[in-house]
Each structure stands twice: as structure tokens, then as C-alpha cells.
Amino acid sequence: MGDVVEYETHGAIAVIALNNPPVNALGVAVRQGIHDAILRATSDPTVKAVVLTGRGRCFCGGADIREFGKPRQGPSLSDVINMIEACEIPVVAAIHGTAVGGGCELPLGCHYRVGDSSAKFGLPEIKLGLLPGAGGTQRLPRLIGVAPALDIMLSGEYVGAMRAREMGFLDQVTEGDLVRGALEYTNELIAEDKGPRRTRDMKLDDSGAEKVLAAARAKAARRSRGLVAPQRCIEAIEHALKIPVEEGMQLERKYFDELVQSDQSKAQRHLFFAERLAHKIPDVPADTPVREIRTAAVIGCGTMGRGIAMSLAYGNVPVTVLDMNAEALEKGLAGINRTYAGSVSRGSLSESEMEERRGLISGTTEYSDIAKADIVIEAVFEEMDLKKKIFATIGEVCKPGAILATNTSSLDVNEIAAATDRPDDVIGTHFFSPANVMKLMENVRGEKTAPDVIATVMKLSKDINKVGVMVGVCDGFVGNRMLYAYKSQAEFLLEEGALPHQVDKVIYDFGFPMGPFAMGDLAGLDVGYLVRQHRRKTKPSNDRESIVADRIVEMDRHGQKNGKGWYLYEEGSRKPIPDPEIEQLILQVSEQLGIVRREIGDQEILERCMYPLINEGAKILAEGIALRPSDIDLVWIFGYGFPVGKGGPMFHADHVGTDKVYDTMKVLYDKHGEMLRPAPLLEELAKSGRSFADLQS
Ligand code: 3HC
């Protein structure tokens, strides 16, 4: 037995401890180690019970994801868990920190479970494009019921100790030292002669299950469109209800093996590692000290400011929202109350959680009230002069060491930083709307941003449950710069022969929640119009520009907010209805430009939208604005709704083949000129037979 699994005895109890940092992942050596330890315990007549625990930061983070797709070695996790469950002496799991994935299936195979107050359990396989593959779909519903089990598996979210006790996952929440508590608990079991209690033998309550499954199917179809794992997960739970446990486990294993080989799971596993890699910033080593964030302030109480305030409150950070206009402040705070009330009525937030979070948010109209904040996030209108004025003020008012962040989505962070006399404290924190929901934080380092400011903001992203990605300064940073490359091609397609609903359908079918025109209507068309006007004045260029987008706004069509944009909207409805007036306008514009309209096929639309997006990503990489391809993938997955099952634009480019993307870009360039010139990096990769993954660092 290797030392990744430790064995010791305490009287009549064998304590088996996983010791495989950082998260006790269940790689081959650990599985073998548990197997051998169980054998040792059960072969020793003096051992009357076993406690299974984990050393380090958590009980267990699950199967070793790095082993997926490789030839299987040693005992399988299912075999090890079945072996534990079959033991004739009681086996008790003692859980601290997370017990997730296979690390949750392991205690499900134990006969009893105790945890300390830090214990959390969950089955997050769905986030990796998988379903639990070591009995989780068959055991968890038997232990806690079909509805909560479905919820846990389909959301992939973790459940804390108290709730876990209420649900029946934990038998006891211990205080003080966990292993000591687990030993006491186990000694009581021995004293009371309580033998094994096997989850597989528990009776599954099937009342109302059909309804629950149907609702889960409908929800998965809506929320996880195109993803196979949620469907398989629901099927497996249905098997738990209908067929013997052993057969259910075999089918679960079959689904797992299929999914592990699927492109969707490979893409989602790529994203799992991408999220962690994003925190590795070469010139900001992991041991860079961070500044403590105990309190925060947000400037501006509009949609963004409110969302950011709620995000901070979610992370338990008290936040003061400042708006110079008392009426706007009141309106903003009322908006926050409404959003929370909505979450409570939908059941996604409890009354007490709402009170707690609302209690962390206060409002002010005075700068002096935010002087002591550890971080100030400015979230006012996207106007350079206004931002500079605010930064000059907070540079003076805020305490030394306070981080001064801007939520700009495209403006020059260096110019904003220069408005203060402490540019090293300044950084961009670009949230996405609605900021309390969207997971991305595109953090923008300026030329002078201090390393500890970078480290602190990346940590804050994690603390408030966001996906933080550090990027450099350029127009639109990573996300909006690539968005511009994609949206402008979508608009040119209209001038050349396509219609908005045709383009939108292609993008929707690819897997985005909506196409660029429906998205424009949702976000509001007037903002983009103002940005374009400003850009024309400040950065005149001869690049081709779409005329239709401007015409629409000049026709007073601002999108959903006034019921008409690229589409028409009926009162109170968000359903886009194609509008003959827009079709007419598009035809007129083509004629005016002297373009002979032609039939444009779906594949051409897809390539014309996606490949320039990838091409821009390649330029961004070459310029060092993004550190690695997977950082770009995160930005597009978590900020722009790029389909998760495709892993992000750069991962998708590798899937298609960099040579194929390059060849198509070359054809587009020959036809449309400079704006579609292939990026040199893309050309280099294509010609040397490499992929973006080869650039990962
Ligand atoms: N396999 C391999 N590596 C893992 C891992 C796993 N299951 N879980 C975490 N890691 C690695 C991370 O990649 C990271 O590596 P790095 O330091 O080289 O970047 C390191 O462990 C630390 O991870 P975090 O930065 O996420 O550490 P935290 O302390 O913030 O969080 C955690 C720990 C809560 C366990 C978190 O890592 C987590 O939620 N992991 C989820 C793992 C998961 O999805 N498990 C299911 C696996 S699939 C499965 O079990 C199949 C089964 O049903 C058969």
C-alpha cells in the first residue's frame, strides 16, 4: 500500500485516511490503497469497524480527472465502493471539506456518514459532461429521495453540512476534532451492535417520481440544450426506480464510459482545468501576498452597479453603493430588493439568506462614506471623462492600499489609472450583465497595476463565485474585441443576402442561447450606436462598417426596451418576431451599396461568424492580451454564452482543425479583403500542423 492511503488502528477501529494532496483525488494508487486497507481491516479479527477519512484540505475531490480517457488500471472505483459496502463490519465515512463526485460516491458506499461543520457534498460530474459513474445515481436517490438527488446531480452544486444532515446524507455533524468525533460515533455503533447499513438495500420512495422526472427533463431541455449528460443522468435515476440496483449500476457505468469519450465531456473537462489555470499568472506567483478585502464600495447604482453589489454580498463582503443622485440610489436599492424578492419567490434563495445578503448592502451619496473600503468598483456610464473624474476623486478620498477598480467594458484602463496619483492600485474588473448571475469577471491589468492588486482581484473573483480571467489592455479587451469581430460579420451577411432570423437560427443551433441580433435587441441597440459614433470621431478608419445597424437605431428602434429593434416584440413578450420593415430596410441598404444579394447557406453563415471570432482570438494571443487560449475560452463560455459542450472558441478551433479554419479565413480574405486577413499566428499554427492547445502554458 502506498502512503497515499494511511492505515492505523484505534482500539477496535481501523482508521483509513486518504492522503493524496491537493484534494485526495481517487487515482489508481488511492483506489488500490483503499482496496488493500479494507482487505487488511476485514482480515484482522480484532478490527470491529472502519473509519474512512481524508487528510488535508478536504475529504475527497472525486475521481482523478486527469486519468479520464487513459487505459484503466487497478481496481475501478465502483469495485472499491462495492467492496466497502459489502463489508460485514460497519464502515463510517468521516468528512471534512468537500466530498464530491467519486469522493461523494465513496461515503455513499459506506454504512454511516459523519461530518464536521465544513463538510460539503455534491455530484458535480454534470459540469464535466458526465454522470456519477460509481453508483451515485443509484445510491443517492435511495438515501435522500429522488427529487433532492436529481437536483444535486443536475445542478452540480454542493450541499453544506447542516442541510446534508437534514437531507439524511450525514448521520451526525460533529463538533471539535472530526476523527475523534467519528471514533466516538463508531464506538457507539459497536457498543449497540449496529452492523452495516447498506445504501443499496434502502427502499426507494417512488411516490411522485414520474412527475419529478418529467419536470427535470423539461428543465434540462431548457437549461442544458444540446448536452447529453443531463439526459443520461435523468435516465439513470429512472433506472434506479425501475430496475434492480445491480442492473442500474451497470447501465450507469455504460453511460459514464460513453460520456467520458464524448466531445462534450472533453470540452467540459478542458474548461475545468482552464478555470484553475487562469489563476496561474506567470509574473504573479502563487505566494504573492493578497490585500485583505473586508469591505467594498460600488460607484453607480444602475444595472451593473446593483449586480456587482449583489455579487459581493453573495461572497459575504459588506458593500456600500454610492450614487451622487439620491433618487437614483433609492431606485437602485429598490431594484436590488426586487431581484432578491424574485429569487425568494422562485425558491432559489431562502428568506433568511435574502435578509443576510440585503443586510450587507447599504447606500450613500457621500464619498466620505466609502473612504475606508478595501476595494472600490466604479460602475458608471461608459464615458472616459466621467470615469477620470471619479478616479481622481477616489484616488484622493480612499484610504492608502484600497484597490480602485473600474467596470469598464472597453475603455483604456491605463488612461483611467493615470487620473489618480496611484495607478498601481488601479485595475479593471469587467463584470457581465446581469452581474449577479453571469459568472465571468474579465479582470484587466494596466501597465502599472501592482502584482498584489492582481492577486487580490483574482482571489476575490473566486471568493464571490465568479470565473476570473486576467487580460491586458486593448480596445474591448478580450471579450468585446472578439464580439465586435463576430457581430460585424453577422451584419455584413445581412447586406450580402441573409436576414437576421436566418443568422440567429444558425448561431442558436450551434448552441449559443441566442444569435447576435436577438442578443443586440436584449442588450439595447442604442449603446452600441453611441460607442460607434464615438469611435468614428476618436479613431477614424477606412474599415468597412455596417450601415444597417446605424439605420435601425436612427429609426428609433432600440431593441426590446422599446418593443422594436432587429425584431418586433409584443407587449410584455421577449419573443423576437421577424419584421417585414427590417427586411425592406436590409434590401434597400444592399441596393444602395450596389451589392447583389445571394442565397447564403447555413454553413457559410456559421463559418463567417465563428472563424473571424477565432481569428481575432489568435491576434489577441499573439499580442499577449490573453495569457493562453484557454483564458479566451473561459471569457466566451462564461461571458458570452459560447456553448459549453464546445469548450470555447479556441478549443473549438482545434476541434475543427487550425488548418481548416485558416484555409477558410484565406478564402474569405481573398473575397472580402483586409478585414478578414488570417491572423499570422493562425497561419503559423496551420502551416506547422499545430493547434491552439500546443500554446497552452
Ligand atoms: N481530479 C484531478 N485533479 C483535481 C480534481 C480531480 N477530481 N479536483 C481538483 N483537482 C486539482 C485541480 O485541478 C487543482 O490543480 P492545480 O493546483 O494543479 O491547478 C487542484 O486540484 C486544486 O483544485 P482547486 O483549485 O479547485 O482547489 P479548491 O480547494 O478551490 O477546491 C475542490 C477543491 C472543491 C475539490 C474543487 O477542486 C472541486 O470542486 N473539484 C471538483 C472535482 C470534480 O468535478 N470531481 C468529480 C470528478 S468526476 C468523478 O468523480 C467521476 C465519478 O463519478 C466516477
Shape: globular
CATH topology grouping of the largest domain: 2-enoyl-CoA Hydratase, Chain A, domain 1
Strand order in the largest sheet: 12-11-10-13-14-15-16-17
- Cα-atom radius of gyration: 28 Å
| Separate helix tally | 28
Number of strands: 19
Structural class: alpha/beta
In percent, how much strand structure appears in the residues? 5-15%
- End-to-end distance, in Å? 34 Å
Unreliable stretches, pLDDT < 50, 5 or more residues?
A: none
List the ions, cofactors and other small molecules found in this model: 3-hydroxybutanoyl-coenzyme A
CATH superfamily of the largest domain: 2-enoyl-CoA Hydratase, Chain A, domain 1
The largest pleated sheet is described as:
8 strands, mixed
Word description of this protein:
The chain is α/β, with parallel strands linked by helices. It has 3 domains: 5-260, Alpha-Beta Complex (2-enoyl-CoA Hydratase, Chain A, domain 1); 296-471, NAD(P)-binding Rossmann-like Domain (Rossmann fold); 479-695, N-(1-d-carboxylethyl)-l-norvaline Dehydrogenase, domain 2 (Orthogonal Bundle), CATH 1.10.1040. The protein is globular. 47% of the residues are buried. The structure holds 3-hydroxybutanoyl-coenzyme A (3HC). The site of 3-hydroxybutanoyl-coenzyme A has 27 residues, from strand 5, helix 3 and helix 11.
